[in-house]
Amino acid sequence: RKEVEQDPGPFNVPEGATVAFNCTYSNSASQSFFWYRQDCRKEPKLLMSVYSSGNEDGRFTAQLNRASQYISLLIRDSKLSDSATYLCASPRPPGAGSYQLTFGKGTKLSVIP
Amino acid sequence: DGGITQSPKYLFRKEGQNVTLSCEQNLNHDAMYWYRQDPGQGLRLIYYSQIVNDFQKGDIAEGYSVSREKKESFPLTVTSAQKNPTAFYLCASSIKVSTGPYNEQFFGPGTRLTVL
């Protein structure tokens, strides 16, 4: 299994829809996970951090499933402005510079009017 | 304003030339990182530094060099030995060096390098 894997998409959803992305990870010792949002030709920006079972911030909910080793990002009531690529990140395994992060390749979301 | 700055935003280089990309942060972060992003490839780690005067190779260090003479600065040199240097280069920093739950990395705006 690759360290971090994401479905590349694209996910094309209508405004107002609920959409969810999954991200699988291989390092079972990871204590923290991160979702970043990256707009076209811009830098990734931290969207949410997940340290325990999950985190919620407005329309965005991140959940962690340790048994199956995946994290999910749920976006409710999608807005046009949510269109972006969403990257997940997980710390590398112990002994490999575990303060480093491994990033997935990203899932592209397009919210359609 | 606290943050990470990178310059230049766009850089054009002729084959055979070395170029240096600037990265500065005023967040008082210990660790700094350089990534390269190519379409469909995701972020790949070039070099990272935990403290001043120390740095380590990442996954794709060949053809690159760095220095960390000041906590705030981590410049990246793309040498002529780098075979495919055209890419989007991102600098990042994080507050914690040791292992632990807080590993958020924050990114600068990036430098887009094109080799002519």
Description:
The complex is a heterodimer of chains A (113) and B (116). Chain A is mainly beta and 113 residues long. Chain A has no helices and eleven strands. In chain A, strands 2, 4, 5, 9, 10 and 11 form a six-stranded mixed sheet that branches. Chain A is globular, with a radius of gyration of 14 Å. Chain B is mainly β and 116 residues long. Chain B is built from no helices and eleven strands. Chain B has strands spanning 4-7, 10-13, 19-25, 31-38, 42-49, 56-57, 64-66, 76-78, 87-94, 106-107, 111-115. In chain B, strands 2, 4, 5, 6, 9, 10 and 11 form a seven-stranded mixed sheet that branches. Chain B has a four-stranded antiparallel sheet with strand order 1-3-8-7, with no helix packed on it. In chain B, a hairpin with a 6-residue loop joins strand 5 (42-49) and strand 6. The N and C termini of chain B lie far apart (35 Å). Chain A binds chain B through residues 31-32, 34, 41-46, 49, 51, 87, 89, 91, 94, 97-101, 103-106, and chain B through 31, 33, 40-43, 45, 48, 50, 56, 58, 88, 90, 94, 96-110, 112.
Task: Summarize the model shown.
The complex is a heterodimer of chains A (about 110) and B (about 120). Chain A has about 110 residues and is mainly beta.
